[in-house]
# Entry
Amino acid sequence: MARFVKSFLQSMLKLVNLVMGMVGLTMILYGLWMMRVWQRDMDGFSSDDLKPPHFPWFIWASIITGISFCVMTSIGHIAADTANGHCLSCYMVVLVLLLLLETAIATDIFLNSDWEKDLPEDPTGRFDDFKDFVDSNIEIFQWIALLIVLAQGISVLLALVLRTSERGSNYDSEDDYTPTRHPLMNRPVQPLPYLATDAWTVAHDNEKVRRGELASNVKETRRRENIWDNRDFSVFLSGL
# Structure
């Protein structure tokens, strides 16, 4: 059951995380398309004394934001596939910081009527065309923004639940292991290995046998000396 829940959470996190990847890829393609249109419009602008300006900042902002979403998707996919606690924590921290940044930008736009003055200057004047395009499709962009925020929030919740379940499974596996306990005092003495014990016993027995033989030889020598002493004494008495 625990494995099924873990697999389900991983699949859901990958699926929700895929939404940010699709949005990021769309923003990258849109930025490249705007670059192409910009180059086409600037073909007749260049002359011998006048060089065309660089790409507008909002094109780079679209491409960089799309790349950031794709990187976040890759990190989330790795974290969901490995279910590693450190990867999931890093993924959640980055997502929370991104949500805070998006909340600050949205608050500034809704509460500050002069929010356009906070943006970098656009000498090309193309930002007005981009703003008109966004205003004409404001409902679509609102739904996209809501989808991104929901995907990020759900990703944070799923990553948190997956990290908690992974930690709980690790605790359960540790509880299943029951280490053997030994008394602190009067522990049973482990005998020496069989070969070492047997060799020591044999050497000790051989030493006993050698000492016994030596003692018996000494006794036999003393007995023989006593016999010869008695014989000499008898011969001496008979000579008298």
Summary: The longest helix spans residues 194-239.
